[in-house]
Amino acid sequence: MDQLKTRIKKFNEIIDRTFDDDEGESEYRIEQAETSSKEELKELSAFFDAEIPQELLAFYLQIGGIRNHAFDVYGLNIPPAYGLLKQLKAERRYEKRQSMGLIDGIKHSWSNDRPEFSHIPESQINYINANYKCIGLHHYDWQFEEAFYIYFDKNHQFGLLRYHQDKFDTLWQEHLTPLLTESQANQTLEQLLIQVLDRLEEGILNDFNGN
After folding, report:
1. CB-CB contact of 29 with 16 (8 Å)
2. If we measure between CA atoms, which residue out of 102, 97, 107 comes closest to residue 176?
3. pLDDT tens column, 66-78
4. Cα(68)–Cα(38) distance, integer angstroms
5. What is the C-alpha separation between 85 and 79, in angstroms, rounded?
């Protein structure tokens, strides 16, 4: 996780140099959550219903979680273990995450209100949830209309999946249906998160400079 820690530090330094807020910080700065305990990870592992990749365990133990307060444009949220446990144990329907599965992760980010999935065979939904686990998401330039979901597969490779609220057919046909036969994930967690930070930084700076 050393490369990711270095990239987070560099990202925040660039944000600090670019924005001069009254309170001395920007909504784009990346914050780290408290690191997760081994007890929390043991409890969380039961909800994953799959082996947690060693790299992800290292992330939870060394970094905890990362997020900023730009919840729509250029927002990032990868909860720590205790944050995921809170979602999984929530009692209110719109707050509760049904599982760590990818589709359940997508639905949870929309307050469990994505009726399009009701038209998909349950067996296919269950297969994707069982084989692909979602750990967080980021937004880019479509505010809350679109998100990029961070997931891993049974080979412990990580990937991104894009979903725009008005393009469910694209989501299902081009992104989720292929997962029924072959994983599209092909990166380590550290590689993927550094790539996400690179992209967010580029977008933020382009907007600031009027490009």
Report:
1. yes
2. 102
3. 999 987 789 999 9
4. 25
5. 10
